[in-house]
Amino acid sequence: MAAKPLYMKSASLSEQVYTLLKELILERKIPGSSEMLESRLAEELQVSRTPMREALVRLAGENLLERRGARSYTVRTIDIKEYLDTMALREVLEAEAVGKALDKISAATLDDLLKELRELIDAGEAQEHLFWRFDEKLHNTIAEASGNLVLAQVLKGLRVNVRLFRLHSPLHRQQENHAEHLDLLNAMREGDREKSLASIRKHIINLRNDVISSL
């Protein structure tokens, strides 16, 4: 792993280290099997151990990393059973979030998401990180609009599991996902509860079945 040294900007140094490491993990630039030593990472990024330690502890707290020793971590591995269990929970909880968000989320917020999604669709097959960035924004926005912060936090953790699983099983259905997201947002924009709930359930089931079909 090669990276430029970090310097204090608007965010704290710990925040910068956290953001960079998370990006390196999710873009597969840190192999899941590799040992992440606090001292070595601090040296490579030319930062002190304190912000590095804080960033690693934070990533472990988000279940992206597993502690292997006093100052050693690895990227957490999600097997097929944990992935399928995760998707079974998401099918229930994402629908709960959509149902609660329908009466709370603003039309302007939905319009902004629709605009961004249509731009992605028009661009064709986007870079993977752009796809995931929108996917996370969409689902987080809906979950947070539900008004249930515990629900939003649980769903965020479940989506971490999905991202970790996809590090070893890349997603090859960007356009299908975009179409399903479009159906969901249009249904929510229309205030159609039945269609919105059906759309989110269909989306989660299709994601799960796509993985099952590749086994």
Automatic annotation (TrEMBL):
Protein name from the UniProt record: GntR family transcriptional regulator
Superkingdom as given in the UniProt entry: Bacteria
PANTHER family: GLUCONATE OPERON TRANSCRIPTIONAL REPRESSOR (PTHR43537:SF24), TRANSCRIPTIONAL REGULATOR, GNTR FAMILY (PTHR43537)
InterPro entries for the chain: GntR_C (IPR011711), TF_FadR/GntR_C (IPR008920), Tscrpt_reg_HTH_GntR (IPR000524), WH-like_DNA-bd_sf (IPR036388), WH_DNA-bd_sf (IPR036390)
Residue intervals of the HTH gntR-type domain: 11-78
A GO MF label: DNA-binding transcription factor activity
UniProt cross-references to SUPFAM superfamilies, sorted A to Z: GntR ligand-binding domain-like, Winged helix' DNA-binding domain
Entry annotated with the keyword Iron: no
Species for this entry: Pantoea cypripedii
Swiss-Prot/TrEMBL keywords: DNA-binding, Transcription, Transcription regulation
SMART domains: FCD (SM00895), HTH_GNTR (SM00345)
Residue ranges crossing the lipid bilayer per the database entry: none
